[in-house]
Every structure is written in C-alpha cells, then in structure tokens.
Amino acid sequence: MAEFWRWKEYNWKDPDKDWKTAKMITAGIDVGSVSSQAVIATDGELYAYSSMRTGSNSPDSARKALEWALQDTGMKQENIQYVVGTGYGRVNVPFANKAITEIACHARGANFMAGNSVRTILDMGGQDCKAIHCDEKGKVTNFLMNDKCAAGTGRGMEVIADLLAVPIEQVGELSFNVPEEPEPVSSTCVVFAKSEAMGLLKDGWTKSKVLAAYCLAMAKRVSELLERIGVEKEFFITGGIAKNAGVVKRLEQVIGISAVQSKYDSQLAGALGAALFGQALLQKEKAAGKVA
Amino acid sequence: MLANYGYKDGSGEYFVTIDTDKCTSCPHHGCIDGCPEHIYEMITDDYDDNVSAVRRDVRNTLKYLCAACKPTTGRGVLPCMAACTPGAITHSW
Amino acid sequence: MITAGIDVGAKTIKVVLLDGGKILAKTSVLAGFETEQSVEEAYKEALAKAGIERSAVGKVGATGAGRKAVAFAQTVVTEVSADAQGAVFLHPSARTVIDVGAEEGRGIKTNADGKVVDFAVNEKCAAGAGAFTESMARALEVTLAQFGDISLKSNKSIPMNAQCTVFAESEVVSLIHSNTSKEDIARAVHDAIASRISAMVRRVGLEQDVILVGGVAYNIGFLDSIKRTLGIENVVVPQDPEYVGALGAAVVAGAAGN
Ligand code: SF4
Ligand code: SF4
Known about the structure:
The complex is a heterotrimer of chains A (about 290), B (about 90) and C (about 260).
Chain A: E1 10-13, E2 25-31, E3 35-42, E4 45-53, H1 58-70, E5 82-86, E6 98-99, H2 102-114, E7 120-124, E8 129-134, E9 140-146, H3 154-164, H4 171-175, H5 190-202, H6 207-229, E10 235-238, H7 245-255, H8 269-287
Chain B: E1 2-9, E2 12-19, H1 20-23, H2 31-34, E3 40-44, E4 50-54, H3 62-65, H4 79-83, E5 89-91
Antiparallel strand pairs in B: 1-2, 2-5, 3-4
Chain C: E1 2-8, E2 12-19, E3 22-30, H1 35-50, E4 57-63, E5 75-76, H2 79-90, E6 96-100, E7 104-110, E8 116-123, H3 130-140, H4 144-153, H5 165-177, H6 182-204, E9 210-213, H7 220-230, E10 235-236, H8 244-256
Parallel strand pairs in C: 1-4, 4-5, 6-9, 9-10
Antiparallel strand pairs in C: 1-2, 2-3, 6-7, 7-8
Helix pairs in contact in C: 2-8, 3-5, 3-6, 4-6, 4-7, 6-7
Bound molecules: iron/sulfur cluster (2 copies).
The site of one iron/sulfur cluster has 10 residues of chain B, from helix 4.
Keywords (chain A): Iron, Iron-sulfur, Metal-binding, Oxidoreductase
InterPro entries (chain A): ATPase_BadF (IPR002731), ATPase_NBD (IPR043129), Benzoyl-CoA_Rdtase_bzd_qsu (IPR017605), CoA_E_activase_dom (IPR008275), Dehydratase_Activator_Redct (IPR051805)
Protein name (chain A): Benzoyl-CoA reductase, bzd-type, subunit Q
C-alpha cells in the first residue's frame, strides 16, 4: 500500500535526565496505520522517543520503535516497568501490560503537551479523523472517530495531491499561492471532488488555486465534525495534518479559534499519553502492593 | 462521557451517541438485547467503567444496519432507545 | 400527441420522443460546458432521428439534476417522479423501482399509476452508486462488462471491509496481492454495493415487481447480487434502462397536456 504521509523517521532523548535515578519508568507505544511512535517516560516526564514507519507486521513495528527509542540511552527493555500499547495496532503490542484506545491516549498526551486548558483535540491521520473533548485532567468527555470516509483524512488529501502531481508535503505552501481564496470544492466525496478538481483544471485554474479550494473544503468538513463534539478553547491539533498549514490555517479561520502550539512534535500525543497512562497504572499497582 | 460511534460521509451524518455515564448505574443494559441487529456490546472502557459501546465491526455500516428501524415514513420509537431505560442512546439521523 | 422527455444528468443528457404509447427516438449526448447548448444538441439529434420537426412536438418535460437548463419545457419533474412514471409505463406491474446511476442510487415505491408512494436516495457518496463499481473495475484492470461477467463465475462470498470507494480500492489491491481470484473480488464488490442499495430499498418497503433502471442495470454481476441481497428471484431490467428517467418525463409531459 502506498504511503499517504511521508515523514522523517527519528529518535530523541533528553540529555539532561538520568533514567537511573528515576523511580518509575514507563513506555507508551502507538502503532498507527502509517507511522509508529514509542515514548519512554521517567517519573511522568518525557525522557526519550522515536517515530518511524509502521511495517506490515504490527508486533515487529512496536518492537522496533521501542528499540530505537532506547538506543543510546543505556536503558534496556527490562528496565521499563509498565508498557501501554495504543493506536490502531494496539492489541498487537505483545509486550504491553495494557492496551488503551488512541482516543484516551491522545487526550492525555495533549493535556501534557499543550497544557491542561486544552479542551478540544483534533487528530487527523492518514486514514481517519478524530475529534475529542476533554477535561482539565485530560480525561475524555466527548469523542468521535471517523474512519469510514476518506474525505477529511490524509488519504483524501493525497488523492488530490496525486491528481495534481504535487508532493504531499508541499500542499500547504502551494495552497497559499493564490491572489484570493477561491470557493471551496463543493463535493465532500473524494471521488466526486477529484472529478470536480479535474473540471477546475480544465477551466484554467492553477494547481495552487485547486489546492486552496480543496484545503478549504477539508477545513470545512473537519469543522463540521468538531461541531458535533463542541469546539471549546484551547484547541490542539495532533496527527499528520498538523503539519499541513494549508488546512490548519483555514480551519482556524473557519472555527475562529487558533490552535495552541506545543514544543513537542504533535505526532507523539498518542504514545506520550500511553506512557502517562502507564505511569498512573503503575502507581496504582504499587499502591495496591502488586509490584515493588 | 459522550461516545459517538458511526461516521459522516458525503451523504450524511450517521452517529449513535451513548452517554456512558448513564451506563454505569444502569441495572439491566437493555440495549444489548433490545437491538435486533445486535450492534451494542458491554465493554470495560479506558477508565475502567463498564459501559455500552457500538461494536467495532458495525460502526461503519450503521446507516444500512439501522435502515429497517427507520422507514422513510411512519418511523416509530427506535427499539434501542426504547430498551435503554436511562435514556443514554441518541441517533443523529 | 408527440411529447419529449429530457433528462439532464451530471454527465449525459438523454432525450426520448414519445408518440402516445410508442417510443419514436432516443438519444444521449455527453454534457458539455454549456448545459443549455448540450440540451439543444441532444434535442435536435432526437428530432432528426425521429424525422420530425420541432413544431410536431406538443409538450416537453424535463427531469434530472440540471432540469432547469431546459428553458422550453412545459413540465419539470424530479428524477424520482420521472423514474416511477417511466418504469410503470414500461412495466405496468412494477411497484419498486431501483435506479442506480453513476453518482446516485434511488429506491422508489410506486403505485399502479406511476405515482411515487415513498422513496430513499443515496447521493453524494460514491460508495452507494455506480462510481463505486467503476473504480473497482479500474483497480482490477477489467472493463465494466467483463467485471459483471466474471462476477457470475464466482461461487464464494468474501466480505469487503472498506465502506468507502477510496479505501475499497486499496482493499481490492491487497486482495489481488493475496492472490484472491478476480472472480471472487468482482463478486465481493457487487455484493457490497448491492447490500447498500438493498438497505435503502428496505427503507421504502420491498414490493414486487421490482424493476432495475439506470446505467448500472446493464451490469449482470450487480443484477445477480441485488437479487441475492433482496432475496427475490425476479428483478426486471427493461431495454435501455438508462432512458427510463427521460421516458418518464415524456409521459408526465403528455399527461399534463390535457
Ligand atoms: S463520500 Fe466518497 S470518500 Fe466518503 S465514504 Fe463515500 S465514497 Fe468514500
Ligand atoms: S435503530 Fe434499530 S438497528 Fe439501529 S441501533 Fe437502534 S435498534 Fe439497533
């Protein structure tokens, strides 16, 4: 299968932290349909992480992501006291102590990454779109997930980018290359939007103008999904689309709220949330005297 | 928690919303047997609550599964909503 | 009296000329940039085919999404009404009309006079229309005609998980990679779309005879699947099923003309 969102693979560790002094070490692994992330948290703080492509085999991808996060840390997998798996392949993380949905993990992760005043989270991935409302603790109060329809997902954007022969990572920038905003593409359905886009090109529209019209259509569609759960400040965006300014800027205009920025890579929300869940679960087990 | 299961596609919005706070104190979980298509199941959610959820394998076909309960004319009370005494279930269409 | 029915669709414009109970001519042209111009072109072609003058036509009826583009029509009807009228005209015992075109699917319940009793429409999602089968045939690299044929050769029913045309294309590709036969994939595709269409038909209530119209009616793979999903033996496919809307518009125009 083609890759819909092409991101760089990377890993990172906090050079100022010494894991050996930590009381609790937990990990969160987010195995998504396109990319996988592993986060290692020490005492509820971010310590190291990795992000890489998901292979055809979920357990393998989970293992590799974790190994890569552990690289250069001197830490071994057995030093990790609790592992939580999340994401689409969460049930396929063989060494996880527990699997938690990506909805709950994203909310938890966003709460950490962008602060506890975050109430609305949008996660737009390669093949789905999630809208989450949460409280000040990062607990989900309302959510929806749409993975039936390609419209409003990275996949829909890719169909249009492919039609225009524009690399997906250039979509955002190119879409601003218009003298004024055009009307949005009127068809929601990706199949019909594609025909519509072909017609617009025939009418003499530039690629940029078509992209602008599609990004706006996508922003409108996503805003409709957000309305179902209610948009409230602060607003945070995670997932692949957070990197597509063409959609993000227009979405901010449509809903009239700017997304809060985080110093962390938005792709980590799921895995980070999972690691934090791990921390809380470990604490509980310790309190119950189940583990030392 | 309001859990919205279903989807929105080009043709419309098809969400079943379950107010799971009502499930935790519900004595008999009528939805499970109340729906002729058996779309509901009891799960332990991420916060360890025992709540009703729409089965994963039917979430993307709700428009079709619920069609029989929703004739274009003369639609009555939906069996699932009637069976859910705490009133936790709503449909968007 | 001679009447004309013009069906202005998104892709094609169809014209039927009707003289009482007899069809004089049928034409279809691709919709161009200027809809009005294409309508004119299609209409002229039909008149030429029938060998009659414009003045010989007593009444003109228009239908289809672009029906407002027929400025000279005296009656304008919705696609649903036109379908019902056309279907009952061709097959008087038809009570359920299933119309599956490239971009839309419709289930209509009609009475003996061709009046609409109830209807349900599947629109704006390609997964519930002919565009779905077209995409899947393309992914399988077979023509639409072959696609229907090979579907009949399969006797295995495998489920398709994706409910979206775009995601289903990937699913078809991975089925090919896992060495599933083209025949079985074709049947899975037809079963998938047929189950969506039958759900819609059930919403209006199934009553026989069932008549299948619209471009997808030519697809024998779909016909086989819809019979199976509806659980009935007999689904009537009239000759030239894609002209039923235009025909219905001509029938309505005639009835309106005292
Ligand atoms: S509207 Fe189009 S993109 Fe969405 S599910 Fe239907 S076919 Fe797929
Ligand atoms: S409407 Fe009918 S089929 Fe749908 S959930 Fe309710 S009881 Fe089940």
